[in-house]
């Protein structure tokens, strides 16, 4: 129950267990081609959007956004945690101007606040984090994009902890770059950054000038994407071949077998069951408003126990949780990741184990009330 990498289906892992697949092999090209097509469905976009699969993960996908920016341009980063702040750390390495709108952990930045800011100044690009993994807070992304769409050239959303588990409609919402990574709700090992770019974003790639470096300049990756989508091998830099074979299998399950809508509903149900359990045992969730609860990550605030002790104890119960990483709440909370292939029974095991461990550590909880609330929710 970590926040990624998450547990992986055997079927997905086996798809990558190949000892003789090179980047020009037919099998790999077909897996790449299939993954590119399914990536469009994943982000709910049509052929006007260009998908990219690049090595790395969330951070490489984020940094590749510099391909769309020119020296001196101004960007606005909307952040409520560690991964929103990562945009600031990335952009500050480049010759552009960066402004930041942030809020306290547990809250999202209100769309009205964002709208006021973009009306005040000329921003080329605005970034959002759909689900802030450090706290589990979900930004109301549709309304946030709406608030800025008329005032900025490019809207970028980090969907690393949302894509595959939350509703994502990149085209309908008018998002220019939506990105994710392989190791989260897609339930694939780490190694891949996954993005879709709108026509408006692609237009910017036609301009040879940008602040991007070499490896993460999407101009270098575009010919590979085009060629692979047409069923022909192409090289810029060696792709993570085996991760792409696994991604292809995962996307087959996600889109063609489980169905995106059912997958999102499953995440919503497991997440709600876990939150019912946490509240049932008498603990507080980091996200302050129910509309900020996410389908993928729940932060749990402890009253007196050190979070590190909970994490080390609970491993012996067979459950791995994630530490709280927001600097303002360090040691005071832990995170439950509920994404990928999670089931209702995972919710049961997680809540039951948390209750036992917290009770042993002397935390002030209502032992048994958490698991009861989870059961009642699931049986509803
Ligand atoms: N954005 C978000 C919301 C994340 O959760 C993460 C990873 N936890 C990243 C970006 C960075 O991804 P990676 O670790 O794959 O570089």
UniProtKB/TrEMBL annotation:
PROSITE patterns: AA_TRANSFER_CLASS_5. The keyword Disulfide bond does not apply. InterPro entries: Aminotrans_V_dom, Aminotrans_V_PyrdxlP_BS, PyrdxlP-dep_Trfase, PyrdxlP-dep_Trfase_major, PyrdxlP-dep_Trfase_small, SP_NH2Trfase/AEP_transaminase. One of its GO terms (molecular function) is L-serine-pyruvate transaminase activity. Keywords: Aminotransferase, Pyridoxal phosphate, Transferase. Its cofactor is pyridoxal 5'-phosphate. The keyword Transmembrane helix does not apply. It comes from the Archaea. Pfam families: Aminotran_5. GO terms for biological process: glycine biosynthetic process, by transamination of glyoxylate. Residues 19-326 form the Aminotransferase class V domain. PANTHER family: ALANINE--GLYOXYLATE AMINOTRANSFERASE 1, AMINOTRANSFERASE CLASS V. Belongs to the class-V pyridoxal-phosphate-dependent aminotransferase family. This is Aminotransferase class V-fold PLP-dependent enzyme. The lineage of its organism: Archaea, Thermoproteota, Thermoprotei, Sulfolobales, Sulfolobaceae.
